Task: structure prediction
Amino acid sequence: MAGIKIRAKASDGEVTLKTLMSHPMETGTRKNSKTGETIPAHFIEEVTVSRNGTTVITGYMSGGVSKNPYLSVKFKGDKGDKVTVAWTDNKGQSESGEATVG
Amino acid sequence: MSMKRRTFLKGTLAGSTVGVAVSAGLLSPQAVLAAYPKDAFKNKEVSGALNELLGSADTATSGDITVKAPDIAENGAVVPITVETSLPAESISIVAKENPSPLVASFDMTDAASGYVSTRIKMGKTSDVMAVVKSGGKLYSGSKEVKVTIGGCGG
Result:
């Protein structure tokens, strides 16, 4: 859990946000090659992208999203806006990060 | 006066778990209310997953939806997918048709959001990647085939 990287840039009233979240994204079907034991599912279930405190996009994910998920979205906004990315996983862990639109 | 204060404190304590999460910006109020569509993600069939998620699997192919993905993915564990649509999207869902659980991710879009989502997904084998866009209460889809050399699901 080494944080969330967020980059957001505005152009013509539209913000392009790119984010990288550190997460193993285990499907729950993979097996440990040495012990043969199934590796328990551990993935981000929900991601919210907010602008100035208001949710603009809510994403639901499964273990089908690659490890350390990358997500890019676009929404209305301007330079100086505060954007937040927050996730919750299937174990109830959560993390959030904030950035200012440049 | 003191009674009122006591009542107020009680109320604050009762709501504290959610309240703290909201005030810390961890969860938006909408996110607390919205339920994670677990059954849709677990469904093994494309139609079943769409029915669970969107209430219908009846999608109309639309030229207004673009799915950008590599023609050949050497590593199925990381396949970049970009979905763009000019339709006013209420939600955008990404489906890898041949995956053990075909529904990979789904995004609820507010009016402020543009019809654009880019992410990276796992693919077990060569299949179509379908984007389902809900717009005006109807479902539209676009898709693109991705050839997978090494699968990204399973051991």
